[in-house]
Amino acid sequence: MSDETQQRQWRAIADLYHGFTTGFILTLVSRRDTDSAARMMFRTFRRQHEDLFLPALEKLGISGLPDAVKAAQYHYLSNKIGGVKVEYMFESNRKAWVRFPPPRWIYDGNAMCGVPTEVSRGVLRGWYAQNGVSLGNPRLGFVCTSQGTDAQHGLSGYFYEYDHDLTEEQRLIFSPGEETPVFDPEAAPWVDAIRWPEGRLLKAHRNYSMNYTRTILSESAALFGPAEAGYLGRVTGQLIGMQYFDRIKDAFDMEETSPKGFAAFLASVGASQDDKTEIIEDSNGIIVRQHGWRLMRGHKNIPRSAFEAWNGLWEGALSAHNRFLVLETLRRMDYGDDYFEWRIRERQPSRL
């Protein structure tokens, strides 16, 4: 596989999982309620914060900066690497701004119209309010000055180090109307080119979207229970798989609408996620085996709902590829099998 092909496939995978993240928010709002979506975003971003924030400071080369500047630069660099439109403005060692101008990445396209502002506040409480706690600085808080979900100019605010320790309620406050400074791209930081070559940046872009889906699959089971999480995740996966199939299939050189064609797509998708895959001819169809599950690697006690949701992506993609084919799951690693195994075959006439 050429570097160009691999990079194109990484972008496609990032696009697909980005779609799942946005889609799951809308599924919660439409099939449950606003509070469910807000609580889910709080848990998702708090888990992401706990897993990623401190380890990334050294990787990004910003661990020695003042805390307010460090927090703001982290959000600028990590999101920019992930393909998110973001700005950073330094004001002082105790005050530094970030702004996510429209269009917002997480509320892709017209999805913004279906996201209540409480959901955005859940994101801020989950991550932004926790930076000072994680850095061991009880004086560091975040002041939100604008939210796109309020029809303002995107999400903006600043990390500020006060002269006194903050209570839990003071770590995140809202001050709509404060004017955000003008962004100067030339003054913004960037990662070291030697430590972060293009290939690493593109792979990190893919991982950025995958990490959100990974966290959602775990946290949704804890919040709603595995049965409800499996339903919500699977319907999201099916809808995103069918809606996004057309926009990603060319990255995987999709040609045939046969079982063999979809098997090649599924195997290529697996390989683009760093999972070893193989295709086996079968008298009853075509079998695809995937060894490893890069998406959930390192997670213990993976809920079965995680597979149901993830597999929904491929069920939805197949329905867009050829609605007369069936995707059968034969083996599952979350059941203790050595690999995932699917059979793709022609649908048989109903005998009922």
Low-confidence stretches: none
Report Rg: 22 Å
| Biggest sheet overview | 5 strands, mixed
Separation of the first and last Cα atoms: 46 Å
Estimate the global geometry from the Cα principal axes: elongated
Structural class: alpha+beta
What strand order characterises the main sheet?
A: 1-2-4-3-5
| Tally of helical runs | 9
Number of strands: 9
Strand content: 15-25%
Q: Remind me, CATH topology of the largest domain?
A: H-NOX domain
Number of domains: 2
CATH class of the largest domain: Alpha Beta
In which range does the helix fraction lie?
A: 40-55%
The residue-averaged pLDDT reads 94
Give the CATH architecture of the largest domain.
Alpha-Beta Complex
* Helix and strand sequence: HHHEEHHEEEHHHEEHEE
Summarize the structure in words:
With 352 residues, this protein is an alpha+beta fold. The protein has two domains: 32-187, Alpha-Beta Complex (H-NOX domain); 224-346, H-NOX domain, CATH 3.90.1520.10. The chain is built from nine helices and nine strands. The chain has a five-stranded mixed sheet with strand order 1-2-4-3-5. Strand 1 and strand 2 (95-100) form a beta hairpin. Helix 1 (3-31) packs across helix 7 (226-248), helix 2 (34-59) packs antiparallel against helix 6 (198-224) and helix 6 crosses helix 9. The longest helix is centred in the N-terminal third of the chain and has 29 residues, at 3-31.
